[in-house]
Amino acid sequence: MSTATTPALAPTAVPPAPGRDRARPLRWWPAAVLVLLIVAPYSALPLPGLLDGPVGSPGSLQLLATCLLFGALATGYDLLLGRTGLLSFGHALYFAAGSYATNMFLLEAGLPFAAAAVLGLCFGAALALVLGSVSLRVTGIGFSMVTLAFAQAGSILVSRNPGGFTGGEEGRAAPAELLPSWLVGIDHTANLYWIALAYLVLTLGVVHWAVRSPTGRVWEGIKENERRVEVLGLKPYGFKLTAFVLAGALAAAGGLVHLLLTGGSTPQTTTSDFTLSLLVMVVLGGSGTRWGPMVGGILYTWADHRLGDLAGSGAVADLPAVLRVPLSQPLFLLGVLFVAVVHLLPGGLARLPSRLRRTREENR
Questions:
Q1: What residues pair up with 199 in beta bridges, in sequence order?
Q2: pLDDT per residue over 259-273, tens digit each?
C-alpha cells in the first residue's frame, strides 16, 4: 500500500503595511537635511522674506550659523527641562563661562586658541559641577531659585568688571591676532558656519546617546516620579548632577562657538533673560522630544532677527500709532507668536505631525 505525500505549502507572503513603506524613506530625512546644510555655503539660491541675500552670502550664513548655534543650545538645555524635569534659570551662566573663560585665556595668558578653547570648556564644566552640586541639594522651585541666584551673581560679577577681565557692560572683543586666520574675516564666514553646524550635530549626538543610555532611563524615571526611583534603590542626586554637568559642558561649548561668531564676549549672555529665551525655545519646539528644542531654537532665533528688521521697516513706521507702537517692538511680536503656538499647538511644533495624522485618521 503506497502513501501519497502532500507537498508542503509555500509560506504565504505577508504584505507590508502601507504606512510602513511610506515611513521608511522618511527615516533618512535628517541625513538629507544635513547634506543640504553642509553644501549651503556654496549655494546662490535667493530666499526672499527668509534671508536678506543668497543662502551662501556672508550675511545669510551668519544668521544661519546663529540659528544653528541656538538650536543646539536649546537641545542641550532640554536635557534638564525635558529629560530630567529640572527647571534651571541659570543655564546662561555656563554659556557665558565658556565664552569669557576662553577669551580671558587668550587675552591674559596669551595661550594658543586650541589650548584656550579646551581650558574654557573645562572651566564651564567645572563651574557646572560646583554650582550644580550645591543647587541640587534642594528640589522643585527651590532648585530654580538657587540657580537663578547663581546666575544673577554671575551677571553682576561680569558687569562690575573685576580686574578689567570682563570688560563690564561693553564686553571684550576676541583678539583677532591670536585666532586662526581661517576663523577671522568676512571671507571665512563659511568656516564659522560649518563650526556652528558641527556643534549642532555634536550636541544632537551626545543628547541622543545620553537619553538612550541606562542613565537616560533613570532621568526619565526622575522626571516622572523621583520618589519611585529612590524606592528602587537608586540615588537621584548623582544622576541629576550628571545631567546638570553634561548640559553645562554643552552650553560652555556653545559659548565658545558664540565667541567666534560674534568676535567677542557680551554681558547679555549672562542674564537670566537669556535663560528665559532658552526656555521659550524649548517650549516652542516641544520639550522632551528629539527634534523639538532644535526646531524651537532655530525658529525663535530667526524670528528674533527678522522681526527686528520688520519692526524698524518703513511699512510699520507708516501705520497708525495704535498699530505702529506694538509692532515696532520685536519682543511683543515674539510674545504673540509664542502665545499663539502654545495655545494652538500644545506640546510644541514637534508634535504637530502626530496631531495632523490623528486628525486625518479621525476624519476617515
A1: none
A2: 999 999 999 898 888
Instruction: Express each pLDDT in 197-237 by its tens digit.
Output: 999 999 999 999 999 999 999 999 999 999 999 998 899 99
Closest CA to 83 of 277, 274, 239: 239
Question: What's the alpha-carbon Rg for the chain, to the nearest Å?
Answer: 24
Q: Which amino acid is at 244?
A: F
**What count of other Cβ atoms lies within 10 Å of the Cβ of residue 278?**
27
Which of 100, 135, 120 minimizes the C-alpha distance to 253?
120
Q: In Å, what is the CA distance from 160 to each residue of 2, 26, 131, 157, 263?
A: 104, 52, 21, 5, 21
CA trace torsion 218, 224, 230, 231 (10° rounding): -110
Separation CA 322–CA 353 (nearest Å): 37
Rounded Cα distance between 135 and 137, Å, is 5
**58 grid coordinates:** 556672508
Q: CB of 266 within 8 A of CB of 327?
A: no
Distances (CA, A) of 38 to 65, 166, 195: 11, 35, 11
Task: Give dist(CA 342, CA 33) in Å, integer.
Answer: 26
Q: Please give the grid coordinates belonging to residue 361.
A: 485618521
Q: Are 80 and 211 in contact (CB under 8 A)?
A: no
Dihedral angle over CA of 72, 77, 83, 84, nearest 10:
160
Global pTM value:
0.87
**Alpha helix segments (H runs only) across the chain:** 18-26, 29-39, 58-81, 92-107, 113-135, 141-160, 189-212, 214-231, 236-262, 272-285, 292-311, 314-317, 321-327, 330-344, 352-362
What is the C-alpha separation between 273 and 172, in angstroms, rounded? Answer: 20
Query: Mean pLDDT for the chain?
Result: 86
